[in-house]
TrEMBL record:
Keyword presence, Oxidoreductase: yes
Protein known as: Iditol 2-dehydrogenase
Enoyl reductase (ER) domain: residues covered: 8-337
Cofactor: Zn(2+)
Molecular function terms, GO-annotated: oxidoreductase activity, acting on the CH-OH group of donors, NAD or NADP as acceptor; zinc ion binding
PANTHER family named in the record: L-THREONINE 3-DEHYDROGENASE (PTHR43401)
One Pfam family per UniProt: ADH_zinc_N
Entry keywords, A to Z: Metal-binding, Oxidoreductase, Zinc
Family statement drawn from the similarity comment of this UniProt entry: Belongs to the zinc-containing alcohol dehydrogenase family.
Gene3D superfamilies: Medium-chain alcohol dehydrogenases, catalytic domain, NAD(P)-binding Rossmann-like Domain
Claim: Metal-binding is one of the keywords in the record: yes
Native organism taxonomy: Bacteria, Pseudomonadati, Pseudomonadota, Alphaproteobacteria, Hyphomicrobiales
Amino acid sequence: MKAVRLEGVGSIALREVGKPAAGPDDLLVRIEACGVCGTDRHLFHGEFPCTPPVTLGHEFSGIVEAIGTGVSGFSVGDRVTGDPNIACGSCPHCHAGRINLCHNLIAIGIRRDGGFAEYVVLPQKQAFSLPKDLKPTHGAFCEPLGCCLHGLDLAQIRPGSSVAVLGGGVIGLLTVQLARLAGATTIILSTRQASRRALAEELGATATVDPSACDIIDTVVGASGLMPGGVNVVFECAGVRETVEQSMRLAKAGGTVVVVGVMPQGMKAEFEPFDLLFRELRVLGSFLNPFTHRRAADLIASGAIEIDKLISRHVTLEEAAAVIANPPAPGEVKVLVVPR
Ligand SMILES: [Zn+2]
Ligand SMILES: [Zn+2]
């Protein structure tokens, strides 16, 4: 079968590899769609730990083609989404219920072969069913939505809350939708790209800001700003220095900052510890999707999340390596690799 292989830092190519077989507790899944993620680009550039050679792709869904002898609850022909993050279940973090911090975490598409291929092997405990009538491309959004759900859970948004979302990529635009569903009544999204601002307003943002055209701090929290004094919750969804630094200044006293965006390892940012202390900010990292994949799949199956507008284009496996090796095109939100 064809698979997009990361062979080392800066080296990615489509290769012909053997079709994998399902072990006793595995499903063999024929990929319907697999999303290209910023993390794939970080992996390509050596900015996120991984172990090449490996087939990339951790945001996938597809149809069960074969099942191992020990599998129950799934049948050939089922549509499934895979939670790529496999926790060991036996380290101190797993025992404490914090599976995303597992010492021995192995992610499909990062440390073992993933979904930029015709088939993927999915352990049954990582598989979640999707409706047969769901659009085949929508299941690929369960993983990013699950990550956003974890951020929402940490933020503890209550009805009437004010929220700022920094970054207009797929994580930012899913977070806007979840904040709306959680009852936030002010949702401000900041991104430089006009098309993404327009999309955010369609998806539930009550206001958008172009941080390259104004002083975002003044525009949002200034005396005559959108939310004078700051917002209850800031979601950092861009993973760049500027937005990490802005996030703490946009939160109101006693507010919460949730860092969801994946930044390159080693990136530095500045903040004033006095601000953290004096304004008693709650600054939280939100990593991966612990126990949120089922809810993400149910939300997507319910139609409560707008997915089609987030899909910029479909590409083939043949085109995928070039997409990952290059920065996203302006305005692009999510590119899906669709094998056939
Ligand atoms: Zn991802
Ligand atoms: Zn563990």
